[in-house]
């Protein structure tokens, strides 16, 4: 059993929590998304949405902003919460729930892979590489949401 700072104990395991940011740029009517090439297992060498684990006592939005900046060098203020994704098999390291956010851009800003990302690149949504985890599902939901809002 693990103890929390408040002294409570829980007799059952809990999932880990991550925050991901789907960066979407509308350039001349064509949508692009920012992806990172993972530098570490699982899925080392595969493309993914920028994101990572939420630190203790960190808000979901703060974690999303921090991870985006750490992995791509991009800073963002406005985030729109897309949804939560928590299928037990989505991460081979264990049960992990992610809360995904959308960040909207008017251009494909320069981004650089940093921290645990080997590279960061913008891709047309019509020409995406294979994605790690369940990021294809998250990305499809983000594009659908983007296209349905004015």
Can you characterise this structure?
The protein has about 150 residues and is of the alpha+beta class. It has a single domain (about 25-150), classed as Nucleoside Triphosphate Pyrophosphohydrolase (Alpha-Beta Complex), CATH 3.90.79. The protein has two helices and nine strands, in the order ββββββαβββα. It has helices spanning about 60-70, 135-150, and strands at about 1-5, 10, 15-25, 30-40, 45-50, 50-55, 80-85, 95-105, 115-125. Strands 3, 4, 5, 6, 7, 8 and 9 form a seven-stranded mixed β-sheet that branches. Strands 1-2 form a two-stranded antiparallel ribbon. The radius of gyration is 16 Å and the shape is globular. About 30% of the residues are buried.
| CATH architectural category | Alpha-Beta Complex
Q: Whole-number average pLDDT? A: 94
Low-confidence parts: none
Which bin fits the share of residues in helices? 10-25%
The string of secondary-structure elements, in order, is EEEEEEHEEEH
Q: How many DSSP H or I helices?
A: 2
Strand content: 35-45%
Whole-angstrom Rg: 16 Å
